[in-house]
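Reviewer comment 2.1 asked that we show a complete input and output for one of the modelled complexes. We chose the zinc ion case, as it is the one discussed in the main text.
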Amino acid sequence: MRAQVLEAFNQPYIFKKIPKPSSPKGHELLVKVEAASYCHTDAVFASGAMWQTLPRVGSHEFAGTIVALGEAVSPDQNLQVGLPVGVPGRAFHPCGKCYECTNNDGDPDGYGVWCTKAGNLGLACDGGFEEYCLVDSRQVAPIPSNMTAVETAPLMCAGVTIWNALQTARVRMETGGGIGKTIAISGAGGGLGHLGVQFAVKLGCKVIAIDTSDAALDLLKGIVQDLGPWGVNVSIVDARKQTAEQTRSAISQPRAGLEDEVGADAVLILPEAQQAFDYGMKLLRNHGICVMVSFPKDGLHFHPRDLVFRHISMVGVLVGRNRQLRAMLNFAAKEGVRARVTTYKLEQLNQLVADYHQGASGKLVVDMSK
Ligand SMILES: [Zn+2]
Ligand SMILES: [Zn+2]
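Response of the prediction step:
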């Protein structure tokens, strides 16, 4: 079968024929890949900055159709040959015994997304930049009938991550569940951010959408336009031109001397930049929550006094549980949340990567039907 294989760090992918995976065993499914999306983590992996080994087929957010099932796939999961499914990276072959696998908050028995023994498709084992891929039956989500594989793929990492970030920001995850909340998104015009803006608004939140490049701000203007009447709940902020203090006081007018009462209920930090973190922290009201999604390699400086005197919480998120993945995908289908995508043929993956590094906006997706 055709695949794009990373054989050396900081080198292009090699487009070549490799053997089709063997028949699925145990909890595995064999999926015919129809779309595979490129994530920032693919770029980090290809740079050699992670701990995994080569050769590797990348992509940990993809979608396709089930072509075969292993003998241990539970009938409770209602999976069958021909069913279209979205596939996230985590978790392939969880151990079934550890704390994560046995305290999984409603996911299938013995399946823990954060099991430390599990693999991550596209990183520790092969992912979606190939025609057929072995996946774990407990990691997938059936694709709603009004969504395509190309629309689904970019939601499998970016979508579920930002959904989990909003849930961690104490938003109730149902239509209208965010009414009364103000959520600031730093890096709102990026791959995760533009999905976060749409989810947050459709959940009922007011959104402060912050970015610092013309391309990202233009993407945000387009998103707001597409949101129609919902768009009034999004304020786009160019952080190059507006200080955090100005942005914060625009959220609502403070009573004189009581400036700490106003501000965002939560801020999601997506860029790997100290300035983005500092700006976001200044937007929070007392008791607010800072959700870290990015993890800059040199770390960040923070002031414990913000946590102590302003009672701000800081927490990080990494992808989400299978039940969150399914809820996110169903919500996206129902409420019309879609990534802005540019599609490429499988053989054009290196062009996709070049465009990514040039700052192409939205999500870049390999469409196998091209
Ligand atoms: Zn990812
Ligand atoms: Zn485990």
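The longest strand covers residues 28-37. We note this here for comparison with the apo prediction described in Section 3.2.
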